[in-house]
Amino acid sequence: MPQEIILVGEYALNLNINAFTISAWIKSASSTSNRTIMAKGNKLQLRLNADEKVEVMVDDVEGDASFTSKMALSDGKWHQITFVYQRGTVCLYKDGILDKSEQGVYAPKPKYNRFTKGAVYIDKITPDKNQFLGAIDVVDVLDQRLSQDQIRN
Please, what is the Cα angle at 102 between 150 and 48, to 5 degrees? Predict the structure, then answer.
């Protein structure tokens, strides 16, 4: 499968509205605020909330998480977080194990915001929001749905 390199700050990252996968390895530090893992503007985000749970936002009302994990990541260790969307169903995995799934989620609309890792970029004047405290490594954004077996490998 050919890989396309998407650089931070790119407008060109618009996800397949039928199926996509976003994955990242993270090691977080505790915080009492939201911390963005990756984002494309305010309405498409993968982030940690103040309770150390993963939140996925897909074209939801700004500020409200459309999907929140059951598990918390409060151990300070590296974890692989994977978010899979396929035709209205969202699956969230922690270290290759399904944490939560939800149906009836709207497909993301094209966004003309910049792709960012570790914060939400608004514009040149506004400071970045929800800066991630910790480390982020190996961010994958794929225009296809990965199975649980593919995520584990």
Answer: 75
